[in-house]
Amino acid sequence: MPTIHLEIITAERRVFADDVDIVVAPGMEGQLGILPRHAPLMTALQPGEIMYRKNGEPTYLAVTGGFMEVMGDRVTILADAAERSDEIDEARALAAVERAKQQLSRRDSYLQLQEASVAMRRAQARLHVAQRRRSRTTGMGPGSGGAPGGGAGH
Ligand code: ATP
Asked: What are the residues whose beta carbons fall under 8 Å from the beta carbon of 124, sequence distance 6 or more?
């Protein structure tokens, strides 16, 4: 079966590299599913979850934005920041949500509100990915009640 070589890198490190069956990433206009032999593509990403499936098993990572290039059998994600579920500090993400909520409740400038809203989405993406990991070990969480492996996003 043909596969895709997925590489997720940030300015600081290589977060992930492996051959996978499908990649779903948060494009600016919604979730983008990439299968082998996808047409070449270059797109910006928004904060959200990256899902890849390997041997039928879905895995999720958090991404805060960046770019994705699809070229031949390679998908390269150049991320602002990206974390695997086991790297996510949930307490930190919860604190970031609280901070963003407080900022959003103030009557700040449009720019500050925009920044708080994006910070909120970054933190929520991290929390979703961390919760998916927990749901796999406890059977509870965002993935529970759905089909095995959940879906590509929300
Ligand atoms: P915070 O306000 O908690 O710093 P942030 O959204 O402003 O969060 P980023 O600027 O997106 O953070 O990321 C800065 C660095 O910190 C990156 O290397 C990112 O991977 C890491 N990071 C941010 N939040 C978390 C988290 N909850 N768990 C693990 N790593 C995180």
From this structure: 47, 93, 97
Q: What is the pLDDT of residues 69-104, one digit of tens each?
A: 999 999 999 999 999 999 999 999 999 999 999 999
Name the residue at shortest CA distance from atom 21 of ligand 1.
Answer: 81
Question: Residue 42 C-alpha to ligand 1 middle, in angstroms?
Answer: 25
**pTM reported for the whole predicted model:** 0.89
pLDDT tens profile 2-61 = 999 999 999 999 999 999 999 999 999 999 999 999 999 999 999 999 999 999 999 999
Residue 105 lies in domain: 86-138
d(CA 78, CA 88): 19
Q: How far is the CA of 147 from the centre of ligand 1 (A)?
A: 30
Please indicate, yes or no, whether residues 66 and 95 belong to a single structural domain of this protein: no
| CATH number assigned to the domain comprising residue 102 | 1.20.5
Q: Are 67 and 9 in the same domain?
A: yes
150 part of a folded domain: no
- Total of domains in the chain: 2
> To the nearest 10°, the Cα dihedral for 85, 66, 43, 119?
80
- Ligand 1 binding residues, C-beta < 6 A: 64, 81, 83, 87-89, 92-93, 96, 119, 122, 126
Q: How far apart are the CA of 3 and the centre of ligand 1, in A?
A: 31
Q: Which atom of ligand 1 is nearest to the CA of 91?
A: 27
